[in-house]
Amino acid sequence: MVKVLERIGLKVEFPEKQTCCGQPQFNAGLRSESRKMAEYTIRAFENTEGYIIIPSGSCATMIKHGYKELFASDPDMLKRAAHIGERITEFSQFLVDVMKVVDVGASWHGKVAYHPSCHLLRGLDVDQQPRLLLSRVKGIELVDLPHEQDCCGFGGIFSVVQPELSGEMLKRKIHNFEVTTAPTLVLGDTGCLMNIQGGIERQDKPQKVVHIAQILANRDITI
User: Fold this and answer.
1) Domain that holds residue 31
2) Domain end marker among 95, 126, 158
3) Residues 20/58, Cβ–Cβ less than 8 Å
4) Distance between CA atoms of 186 and 134, rounded to whole angstroms?
5) pTM for the full model?
6) What's the burial of 181, exposed, middle or buried (CB within 10 Å: 0-12/13-18/19+)?
7) pLDDT at 221 exceeding the cut of 60
8) Domain presence at residue 182
9) What does the pLDDT read at residue 113?
10) CB-based burial label for 51 (10 Å; 0-12, 13-18, 19+)
11) Per the domain annotation, does 222 fall within a domain?
12) What's the chain's average pLDDT?
């Protein structure tokens, strides 16, 4: 992601104190633990300037929307959280909607399918931005993924508390990916990437899952 942002002429700062945004605890109902992590995250970014660009739809959704719920009864923290939330933008959303950039000079010679991650699509309403960026990649062939809006089964702690159901959803997602005959599945959420790639590896399948930033950062590869 940094390579792409620097390529289009931006200066990128990476606060080294940043850590998890607190979404796993939030989803598990552990609100006090989640608030501690959220407060830490807010402090880590408060002394920075400009947009806060996140390469994960779920993390961006949590900070932008979840923090408002976490601090609903704390006016001071709610104000601070809202200020950070206004600066939050997902990677593809930032490129297309803010920078008005759709061609970052990338190349990827091969067939890929795109999976619209749940939080990215439903939490941030980001759908066409990544598709537009992919369509401008030199040499790429973007194919449709059957039942693309179906969840991959990760869903934060859903995969932990409902492992059997999650596993069946993952199998279906991998099957639909195989139907495309594409060797590469591209997406914009790290949780989905970890879940689907892990399922593929456990089934000893040759396909790969990559983040859209990996595609956009690339300039010369043959798949």
Assistant:
1) 2-95
2) 95
3) no
4) 9
5) 0.92
6) exposed
7) no
8) yes
9) 98
10) middle
11) no
12) 94
